[in-house]
Design goal:
It is a single chain. Helices cover about 35% and strands about 15% of the residues. The chain is α/β, with parallel strands linked by helices and about 450 residues long. The chain has one domain: Aldolase class I (TIM Barrel). An 8-stranded parallel β-barrel has the order 1-2-7-10-11-12-13-16, surrounded by 5 helices. The longest helix is centred in the N-terminal third of the chain and has 26 residues. The chain is globular and about 55 Å long.
Length: about 450
């Protein structure tokens, strides 16, 4: 908990038959023992929530500012997040580089940047095929550490529901670390003692410290310029056996929130309008996001917006377009017109990573900065031309000096990819590439 220490709201009668139960659910692991999965789900339901409804509402308010052209959304982090000590160790780098990117954007645009990590739950991945070839052997595909292990071993690739519990405890450790980082950063502006910070006594904080924490998850203006204040959390709500136990009733509002994260999204492979994942997002009170690929029809786009944002509430729905540099100019203008004509005030965000992935001759999955910049630039230009706000970026960023994406700031040749290729799944931007893209996007937006 970055700000609010969440209580574990009681399970409610409304969840005895949740509306997504029994609907088609794509990309679920082939768990070998359904009874073991049910046992783990029951254990998760008894554990404290990872986030708090009050903080989720604050995230929704910040996204409403983005939809009103008064802020920018920066969402970034791992493709497939490491768990345990490795995840905690990697957090510092992600927190740092997202803060740097947010400050670059805010200094250029003169507005707050909302910073959201793909962290504390990005432990599962949809995959295009059920098997992959590793070392000449066909193995069940790696689906993220909440499901199986990446080791080139058949036994390690068997889905294990106990990993869901490991994922929960890893997320909890990361949220605790984010809490510590936020309070440490805020205390730098005040003369408070370490004991008072450790005690976490909000009423003892002076106005300066309280103002910083009230602006959590955004850059905020100081005398020296724009300054980072922390990260909200997000992940793909993919594994229904993990997410369902964290749908909890908020006693204050009577609404159900998904308290495994602040901002859940559904991917392009699981966005079926009549499917379980969309039913889950439609039910919860969190702000939600959907990734939109080149295969979506106009009818499905309208239906998704109506299903997830029936009241047309600013900040409720973020559409993350992942079209690829080759297709964005052809497809995005019609998508924007369709949503505008339906009356939805969505946050438009660009994922310039997933539509531009290819396999190098060395066997490494990679992306090229030229393609990433090209899609980002086209996204901004098209939104501006349509009179809409290019409100966000959704990126895979390592927070480390990796060599996973080719081009500016990274390896110049495919042979250089192996030097520091550390991702568990898809290639990520290194620190230099992340800052370069933030500067490029901010310059294009500022020029209008």
């Amino acid at each position: 908990m970055p700000l609010t220490a969440p209580a574990p709201p009681a399970r409610t009668a409304t969840l005895t038959a949740p509306p997504w139960r029994g609907l088609p659910a794509a990309q679920q692991p082939p768990w070998p023992d359904p009874a073991a999965v049910a046992d783990v789900a029951g254990e998760l339901a008894r554990l404290p929530a990872l986030t708090a409804a009050a903080d989720v509402r604050q995230v929704g308010a910040a996204l409403a500012d983005v939809s009103a052209h008064q802020a920018f959304l920066l969402q970034a982090g791992d493709c497939a997040e490491p768990t345990g000590a490795m995840g905690v160790a990697a957090l510092q780098g992600k927190h740092r580089v997202l803060g740097e990117m947010g400050e670059i954007i805010s200094n250029r645009l003169e507005m707050p940047t909302m910073t959201v990590g793909r962290i504390a739950g990005q432990y599962a991945k949809p995959r295009s095929k059920p098997e992959e070839i590793v070392g000449g052997r066909a193995l069940p595909v790696f689906r993220g550490l909440n499901v199986n292990a990446p080791d080139a071993d058949a036994a390690a690739r068997i889905p294990d529901p106990r990993r869901l519990l490991a994922g929960y405890h890893s997320a909890r450790a990361l949220l605790s670390e984010l809490h510590i980082i936020a309070h440490r950063a805020a205390s730098d502006l005040t003369p408070l003692s370490a004991a008072s910070i450790t005690a976490r006594r909000p009423r003892s904080w002076d106005g300066t410290l309280r103002a910083v924490l009230d602006d959590y998850g955004r850059t905020h203006r100081t005398e020296e310029g724009w300054r980072r204040t922390g990260l909200w959390t997000s992940h793909e709500a993919l594994l229904l056996d993990y997410e369902e136990p964290f749908v909890r009733r908020d006693p204050r509002t009577g609404e159900d929130y998904l308290l495994s994260t602040h901002l859940p999204w559904v991917g392009d492979r699981t966005r079926q309008v009549d499917g379980a994942h969309i039913a889950l997002l439609a039910h919860i009170a969190n702000p939600v996001a959907v990734k939109i690929g080149p295969g979506i029809s106009r009818g499905d786009l309208i239906a998704l917006c109506q299903r997830l944002d029936p009241h047309r509430r600013p900040g409720r729905l973020t559409l993350i377009v992942r079209l690829g540099a080759a297709d964005v100019r052809r497809l995005l203008p019609e998508m924007i017109r369709t949503v505008a004509e339906a009356g939805h005030q969505v946050v438009w965000a660009c994922d310039p990573m997933h539509g531009n992935t290819f396999t190098a001759a060395t066997g490494h999955k990679t992306r090229h900065m030229d393609d990433i910049v090209a899609e980002t630039s086209a996204f901004i230009e098209i939104l501006h031309r349509a009179g809409q706000w290019p409100g966000g970026l959704h990126l895979e960023v390592a927070g480390d000096r990796v060599t996973e994406c080719l081009g500016a700031g990274g390896p110049r040749s495919e042979q250089g990819l192996a030097r520091a290729y550390r991702t568990l799944c898809d290639p990520r931007l290194n620190d230099d590439q992340a800052r370069l893209l933030a500067q490029r996007a901010a310059d294009l937006i500022a020029r209008g």
